[in-house]
TrEMBL record:
<feature type="region of interest" description="Disordered">
    <location>
        <begin position="218"/>
        <end position="244"/>
    </location>
</feature>
<protein>
    <recommendedName>
        <fullName>HTH IS408-type domain-containing protein</fullName>
    </recommendedName>
</protein>
<feature type="domain" description="HTH IS408-type">
    <location>
        <begin position="4"/>
        <end position="85"/>
    </location>
</feature>
<dbReference type="InterPro" id="IPR017895">
    <property type="entry name" value="HTH_IS408/IS1162_type"/>
</dbReference>
<dbReference type="InterPro" id="IPR036388">
    <property type="entry name" value="WH-like_DNA-bd_sf"/>
</dbReference>
<feature type="compositionally biased region" description="Basic and acidic residues">
    <location>
        <begin position="235"/>
        <end position="244"/>
    </location>
</feature>
């Protein structure tokens, strides 16, 4: 049985958008739009459909009732997606592939969403979460530096030797302007050299350089008052204006 009556209820009684109806019913974007178009074409309003059964609503909108029924879409565990995205190297594309594989392996007659619908539904679900504090950065104020949790490798083209390296990343808070480079280690000399090259790359010096609690820059980790190894220097005013 199609969920036509539920689609009409959510749209005209609750006032949901098509994306919200998709997330609630598990129907595809095309199916939701098709049901609404069919209802408009035959002049079926929600006050009229409210007093009808699902079968009566379906018979009003479809000539061949019960035939060519579309397969139900397998629901997405959005909380699982949200939790997995916090892990290093995990992307929506990877999680969608895992979800699709699990649906196929389950073989219960349902079919998975494709990648674009998977992303749209997750983004719609994410908007229902509680709001978090928004941080506002002034241009040139802060440069955030850290090492990536996922280490890349360098392969010697002649010998084939694989060397694991660190990935240094620096990002300006206001513009998200990013500098990244591979280095041999996270030791003090490598960290300072990478930071210097990052400042040369962005063409200026911010008011504050903010490290995460990496060992190269923080000697005493603390949630509220970490002990920084290298006190920041006062930059020139013209350098701050350039680091946007």
């Amino acid at each position: 049985m199609r969920k036509v009556r539920e689609v009409l209820r959510l749209r005209f009684e609750v006032g949901c958008s098509q994306r919200e109806i998709q997330a609630s019913t598990g129907l595809s974007k095309g199916s939701v739009g098709d049901y609404l178009k069919r209802a408009a074409a035959c002049g079926l309003t929600w006050p009229e459909a409210r007093s009808m059964t699902d079968a009566e609503v379906e018979a009003r909108l479809f000539r061949l009732v019960g035939r060519n029924e579309p397969l139900l879409r397998a629901p997405i565990d959005f909380q699982w997606v949200h939790t997995e995205l916090r892990k290093p190297g995990v992307t929506l594309q990877l999680l969608c592939a895992e979800y699709q594989h699990a649906v196929i392996e389950r073989a219960d007659g349902s079919r998975p969403y494709q990648y674009s619908q998977f992303c749209d539904l997750y983004n719609a679900w994410q908007k229902t979460l509680a709001l978090s504090m928004r941080q506002v950065h002034r241009a040139g104020e802060k440069l955030f530096v850290d090492y990536s949790g996922k280490k890349p490798c360098i392969v010697d083209p002649e010998s084939g030797e694989v060397t694991v390296v660190e990935l240094f990343v620096a990002v300006l808070g206001a513009s998200n302007y990013t500098y990244a480079e591979a280095s041999r280690s996270q030791k003090k000399a490598d960290f300072i050299a990478s930071t210097m090259r990052a400042l040369e790359y962005i063409g200026g010096v911010p008011e504050v350089i903010v490290p995460d609690q990496l060992r190269s820059a923080v000697s005493g980790p603390d949630r509220y008052d970490p002990e920084i190894k290298y006190p920041s220097c006062q930059p020139r005013r013209d350098s701050v204006e350039q680091a946007a």
